[in-house]
Design goal:
The chain has about 550 residues and is of the alpha/beta class. The protein is built from 20 helices and 25 strands. The chain folds into three domains: about 300 residues, 3-Layer(aba) Sandwich (Rossmann fold), CATH 3.40.50; about 120 residues, Domain 2, N(10)-formyltetrahydrofolate synthetase (2-Layer Sandwich), CATH 3.30.1510; about 80 residues, Formyltetrahydrofolate synthetase, domain 3 (Roll), CATH 3.10.410.
Length: about 550
């Protein structure tokens, strides 16, 4: 089969205005970024949103085989359009860190991609650059304030704000700025996070209007004064400048699927270190213009899925009509501890052992009140015995089942999955979300409930930094905010090596970070890093431009 980029290049793209016309977006709403991508303004966000069928796509615990969650999201939208439904997909924007690192791009794959894939995976419409600039402008303004108040009583005893870059660069995690004399600033221990981990990114994705964006930015906690008073962006008086840098980026991006369907792609927080969902603005845009809106949440249902339902849905006032859980036989076998070299071979014992991981995700989504469809991304080496086993097993667990062949066949290959989704949505009454915790629970109770109900752990411990931060966060009203746990994506635990479906473990919270503007408390578990590093052989080693065309981008 051809590579993703080869398939993408063979598609004759439709002008973006034609895509907009298909979903009744007028020409005066379309702000062109070239021929095939655009920002959309003037979206009414009215009662049509309430009539749309929102579908969440999430996945089992990631591993080396991958599951194909983004590909399935695109395929499902294509499949729904194939069977006569007006469907729009809403996705996150890829980060350059994974694109040039280990994971690669995030525009789907095979015959279920969003296009133009090179643009989407690289600079796109500049949203990530705008968010990076806004974050670092705020950092510079904070340092400038500190510089001019370094000899008085108005300076800050502690600065919490860090700079960001959209690269994987472990060398920048911890550093000292302002060296080489007083004219170069005040020496400060600081560091860089990756742009998707920035609170600006979270605010960008959770804001529902420019006014809401400004209000959230004003609430960002910068640090503490010498008399231990909290110091916010509102105190610095620069929220207007930060909003100015984000104003154009804040409008959702419209592109197209490989089959000419509409796709909104906007915002991109990671799900292991942030809340892992595209912007509320883009999701609601898909709901405004579509009969069905398909959106994904990053990594497994224990990370992006949990945060979508507990954080994003609370902030947006939305709820999915059903959840699609994506997996493959290869992924299941890896969770069953089958050797990586043997996962394409039939192995019923490995499949039965690994399916416990699938069971955990199904139970978790069902506990949220969700009707679950297990979407099995089918490969040529999958046997009928394996597929029949998984389908019958799903029936026993109260979950639905459908095969997806969108990667190889596009919308036609996802038609069965699409019909299953429609059958469920149109024959079952909508259910409210059963949240894991109440918003009035304490921070400790929220974390404990996520760990015990979603992860199936038994206990939570806190490090010294977390205990110190807890006291300050509670004084600022943090008990009334949702919790966003930052942990490894490769396990239900905080240890990436514990694959499958571990139970009865402890989660250790190293630190707590108050994202006051975004409106949640980040609980940093285990050794998770907010600035990833590059692998020994990063994807950057093979990405190139040959005869004027980009090669090996996937």
């Amino acid at each position: 089969m051809k590579s993703d980029i080869e398939i993408a290049r063979e598609v004759k793209l439709e002008p973006i205005q034609d895509i907009a016309n298909k979903i009744n977006i007028s020409a005066d709403q379309v702000e062109h970024y070239g021929k095939y991508k655009a920002k959309i303004s003037g979206i009414p966000y009215d009662e049509k949103i309430n009539n749309c069928n929102l579908i969440l796509v999430t996945a089992t615990t990631p591993n080396k085989s991958g599951s194909g969650k983004t590909t399935t999201s695109v395929a499902l939208a294509q499949g729904l359009n194939k069977i006569g439904k007006r469907a729009i997909v809403a996705l996150r924007e890829p980060s350059l860190g994974p694109v040039f690192g280990m994971k690669g791009g995030a525009a789907g794959g095979g015959y279920s991609q969003v296009l133009p894939m090179e643009d989407i995976n690289l600079h796109f419409t500049g949203d990530f650059h705008a968010i990076t600039s806004a974050n670092n402008t705020l950092a510079a303004l904070i340092d400038n304030y500190q510089y001019f108040n370094r000899t008085g009583t108005k300076g800050l005893k502690q600065i919490l704000w860090r700079r960001v870059l959209d690269v994987n660069d472990r060398s920048l995690r911890f550093m000292v700025s302002g060296l080489n004399g007083s004219s170069n600033g005040v020496p400060t221990e600081t560091g860089f996070d990756i742009t998707p981990a920035s609170e600006i990114m979270a605010i960008f994705c959770l804001s529902t209007s420019l006014d809401d964006l400004r209000a959230r930015i004003e609430k960002i906690l910068i640090g503490y004064t010498y008399d231990n008073a909290p110091f916010f962006v509102k105190d610095l008086g620069v929220a207007g400048a930060i909003v100015t840098l984000l104003k154009d980026a804040f409008q959702p991006n419209l592109v197209q699927t490989i089959e000419g369907g509409a796709a909104f792609i906007h915002g991109g927080p990671f799900a292991n270190i942030a809340h892992g969902c595209n912007s509320i603005m883009a999701t609601k845009a898909a709901m405004q213009y579509g009969e069905y809106a398909v959106t994904e949440a990053g990594f497994g249902s224990d990370l992006g899925g949990e945060k979508f339902l507990n954080i994003k849905c609370r902030a947006a006032g939305i709820a999915p009509k059903a959840s699609v859980l994506v997996t493959t036989t290869q992924s299941i076998k890896l969770h069953g501890k089958v050797d990586e070299k043997l996962i394409k071979q039939p192995n019923m014992e490995g499949l039965k052992a690994g399916i416990k991981n699938v069971e955990r995700h199904i139970e978790s989504l069902q506990n949220f009140g969700q009707t679950v469809i297990l979407a099995l991304n089918k490969f040529g080496f999958d046997t009928e015995e394996e597929i029949s086993f998984i389908e019958n097993w799903c029936k026993e667990k109260g979950a639905h089942f459908a095969i997806n062949e969108g990667f190889a066949k596009g919308g036609d290959g996802a038609a069965a999955l699409a019909r299953k989704v429609v059958e469920i949505v149109e024959t079952n009454p909508s259910k409210p979300i059963i949240h894991t915790y109440e918003i009035n629970d304490t921070i400790e109770d929220k974390i404990h409930k996520i760990v015990t109900k979603v992860y199936k752990g038994s206990s939570v411990t806190y490090g010294k930094n977390a205990k110190t931060a807890m006291k300050k966060i509670k004084e600022l009203g943090g008990d009334l905010l949702p919790v966003c746990i930052a942990k490894t994506q490769f396990s239900f635990t905080d240890n990436a090596a514990l694959v499958g479906a571990a139970e009865g473990f402890n989660i250790h919270i190293e630190n707590l970070v108050l994202n006051h503007g975004a409106g949640f408390v980040v609980a940093v578990a285990g050794e998770i890093m907010r600035m990833p590093g590059l692998p020994k052989e990063p994807a950057a080693n093979i990405i190139d431009v040959v005869n004027g065309e980009i090669v090996n981008l996937s």
